[in-house]
Amino acid sequence: MELGGDGAEAHPSLHPAERYPAGGKSLHSAMVEVLCNVTPAAMVVDELRDSDAAKAAAAVGNHGVQLIATAHAETLAELVNNKAMAPVLGDFEECTLSDREAMRRSGAQRWGNFSKVRNQRIGEATFDAVVELRPPSCSREGAWRVILDVNGAIDAIVEKEPYGGELRFYDEDHVLQREDWRPAA
Prior knowledge:
two-stranded antiparallel sheet
């Protein structure tokens, strides 16, 4: 495993940035070591796979380092439903709502047709933006979705509410286009 390319040379896109060979260390160990010993301005990480990597990524973000990372999921909702990614999404805790609040949030018309136990985000997400590269419900070839209100989107997903963002794509003249986007509820 390498930070910045797995060959003898750094990936060309990183010039003039430095590359840090991980020397067989796990992703989270390498991230923490770089954070402690180098004080980077930015860190690019390919694939947060487990809770240890997510915790290390959250630590990187909490130290003011600009973090760019990938995680394999089709949507932000899939990441929210992956408990291992909770540290970079603000972490979650279970809370118990009052009868009245649980009924209001669920839209139930009668007592007893709702759950009083909910998850809620307890911190800020590590990322300022989320990009979904292959939106599953989009018919435009090569389009991607950008979610700029990450905390608001996470809260909406937890509450099973729709959240918004922008659909971006290049038109036939290769001009970047942006459209407001909101998934079906």
